[in-house]
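Subject: Sanity check before I submit

Could someone independently write out the structure tokens for this chain? I want to compare against mine line by line before I put it in a report. The sequence has 385 residues.
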Amino acid sequence: MKTENYRLYYLAFSHCLGIGPMKLKALVGYFGSVKCAYQAKEKDLIKVLGVKTGQKFIEFRSHFDPVKKLEEIKRKEIKILCLEDEEYPTDLKNIPDPPICLYIKGSALNLSDSTSVLVPLRTPQVAKKVTSRPSLKFAIVGTRRPTPYGIQVARKFASELASAGFVIVSGLAYGIDAIAHQASLEAGGKTIAVLGCGVDVIYPYANNKLYRDIVQGGGAVISEFPPGQFVLKGLFVVRNRIISALSQGVMVVEGGKNSGSLITARFAAEQGKDVFAPPNPITSDMAAAPNLLLKEGAKLATSVEDIFEEFNIRIVPRKKEDILTKLNLLEKRIFLLLNERSLLIDDLVVHLQQPIGKILNELSLLEIKGLIEKSSSGRYQVKLR
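---
Independent answer below. Compare away.
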């Protein structure tokens, strides 16, 4: 039977420089479990890690106290998710090199696997989830030196997506990242900042207030690097795969031809995630990254509706905000299903587990009320006005 002790072994491996996700995967594959890998004899470790890394790990293991380290991390109010935890995000677990541990300041709930139902909020253009299930996560990234145009675009998309119930993911860097986090908070949404250092190391320090606002606002600051890990250039590249893996889609707002945001977009494409880019003026140096992505097949986004459409999300106008209170139970179930996506009658029968005649009757009533419509392809959908 598995006990909580498995966390200690993951915690220890994540603190050992030289052993990353791929080497840990090889060790667990060879020894059968993380515990057996951690407790293995030097001669066996060397078979997998090689002499230099194997001896380095033996030295590390001789003086590292995972129990003491775990207590220290808890005192700092840092949460930990490791690969064997049920709460560990599935999309992140399925990449070739999933983080050994995720260290979290704030709410770990935002990292959960997600689906959400959307209903109106604030403006006619946006919507809000009505269930307690976690929302879709969407990454907005870009240059540290945005133009006024880039600032406007990042703020617009982050605000409207956050208002629609999306959790905005970015890297807490200067520029587009910080704007995306801030706009999502101002819209009353949640946001996740993925760091290239320990979660107790605020970098850049100028974003200190933003960091605290994210944590206190129900969002999360996360990292795969252990607490206390200071900034190193290569770590920012590595963290980009986490930004894309956590997100259902990634938008690159602005960036030069060698922008780090292109790396995030590449990771997203490799992970099977949707990549978006807004149109950018060709006279701007910061147009190079998004325009290159558009040439390579990224999805053009001129409004949040382009993103909603890609995810097959139906947006309900604000004037329908009180509709649910006026519907019977079956009408409400049908309306919420169609609010997520358009469906054929056969799909509704499967979802609702009700006789087809009864469902058709309710559909007719909803059509009469002007709430839904039947498309030319025979699919029922919420009627937009």
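---
OP: Matches mine. For the report I'm noting this point. The chain has three domains: 1-75, 110-310, 322-382.
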